Amino acid sequence: MSDKKVISVNDRIPSLKEQRKQRANRRLLLFLGVFFILLVLMIYFQSPLSQVKAIEVNGNVVADQDEIIEASGLSSGDSIWNLHKTESVERIEDLKEVATAELSRKLPNTVEITITEYPRVGYVKQEDGYRPMLESGSLLNALPEQEIPSDAPVIVSEDGNVKLEKLAEELGKTSDQIKERISEILFVPTEDDPLALRLYMNDGLTVQTSVNNFSEWMSPYPSVAKEVDRSKHGILHMKMSPYFEDLNYEEEEVEE
């Protein structure tokens, strides 16, 4: 005869009822929890808590904060969950100083705009003063009279139709080490090269090159400049094959 204990159905009924009661309680708590969350969300979306109260701008140095906010199309009172981010970013990036823009939410009710500006690659000398030129080729308003350009070369061009965008692009690809050695850039067009440039360097050398391939041709300048005899007066031609043109030697030949 088996020693197993036999449990009757009547004995199991209280246990089954308790399990059903626990499951029902859990379902009720789950339902109440979901209802409470939905109620809170509904109150939140209907209250000022979900409206934009502050707009923060980060990363701007040249670009005006008010212009950035105006371009974004955002304003206090807008729903923080209905920002039209793509359209706002596109409008901000239309500003000539702005390279990239990013828009994000900082809960509960702040919008953050983070931008990256085009770097200054030069200063174009014009009648109204020195106008900063950005890597995009755009020109900003002239510097105040008392401010002298020091962080990028001065660019001189009498031809108002010269395409500065190409030069700006090339300067953007040029290392800071080389740009810091350039004091002044002059456009000196010739029949062979309408985009010819003459550079006056901070180390005293005069360089002849071109807008075309500027960043590539100027890259070996530091090593080439070391080989130049500073006692000679001439021009260092920085092109595919750099060479030094001794002007004193040519003058002596003419005299002879």
Main pleated-sheet profile = 8 strands, mixed
The strand count comes to: 11
Distance between the termini: 137 Å
Percentage of residues in strands: 15-25%
Instruction: Identify the strand order in the major beta sheet.
Output: 5-4-6-7-8-9-10-11
Proportion in helices: 25-40%
- The name of the CATH topology of the largest domain is Rossmann fold
- Give the CATH class of the largest domain: Alpha Beta
The CATH level-2 architecture of the largest domain is identified as: 3-Layer(aba) Sandwich
Report the C-alpha radius of gyration, rounded.
35 Å
- Report the structural category: alpha/beta
What's the number of structural domains? 2
Order of helices and strands: HEHHEEEEEHHEEEHHEEH
Instruction: Quote the average pLDDT.
Output: 86
- Given as residue ranges, the uncertain stretches (5+ residues, pLDDT < 50) are 250-254
Q: If helices are DSSP runs of H or I spanning 4 or more residues, what is the number of helices? A: 8
- The outline comes out as elongated
Family: Belongs to the FtsQ/DivIB family. DivIB subfamily.
Function: Cell division protein that may be involved in stabilizing or promoting the assembly of the division complex.
Keywords: Cell cycle, Cell division, Cell membrane, Membrane, Transmembrane, Transmembrane helix
Pfam families: FtsQ_DivIB_C, POTRA_1
